Amino acid sequence: MSQLTGQGEDPRQRIIAYVMEGQKPCHCVGTVRQSRLHDWELGSPGLTTPEPIDQADVMVVVGGTHGTHRAANWGRIAGKPLLPVTRFGGAARDVYYQELDRFAENYAGRVDRDDYEELADVAADLDTLATNVVSLGERVLTSTAVFVVMSFARDPELEDAYETFKAVCEAEHYTCSRIDDDASVGRILPEILGRIAGSAFTIVDLTHPTVNVYYEMGYAEALGKPLIVTAKEGTELPFDVKDIPVVFWSNQKKLREGVARKIEAIAARQGR
Hints:
single chain; 5-stranded parallel sheet; two-stranded parallel sheet; 12 helices; 43% helix; 14% strand; elongated
């Protein structure tokens, strides 16, 4: 508290804790609020996420035992990124290896695996470790991956369009890919759905619409992912997608300009 006060910050706004119903606070640091919950078990009505987890952007997990496992599981239910520090063992070490097993599903496209593994750094001094954890927490919140959904028809203009997508994304510091970029992919559909889930936004081209293209676009929309939808001029769209803003293109220059405007708007909303 003294450090925050010395920096001109109000500890009551930076340090917020909750005391469960029927219990007394064990400290008076910062702001202590009354929780609506009387415990953190999964049997509460409505499966209410504990407030500290619900309001967190990222969860840092250190040490702990059974209660820490419970908190980590609540974080998973709430879809929060978990940053378990292994240095002090305990539950955090177990959580770290569990999250590492799910890295491709939860963190790919946000941070490199090597960066995530800094959570298991045993050589760094504590100040460096803390700095790395805070930095990782900032980066893990914002994906830089963009997934492209489009027909694989042998159409030179579509190949040019994909190259345009990649160039525009790169200029805005995003990494653009589609499923056929990686020859090592096993089961294609789970990989596609995972990449959509981990993307900052999805680009969908409807020039040659297929069932798969519409399925994947619907999945991205259901997840609440920002969509950039494109189609060559003259493409007939079904009535149920005509209300979606579409970048119609007749050449790559027009496509580049339209997609760039869309990406700039998305980046601004995401605080990039």
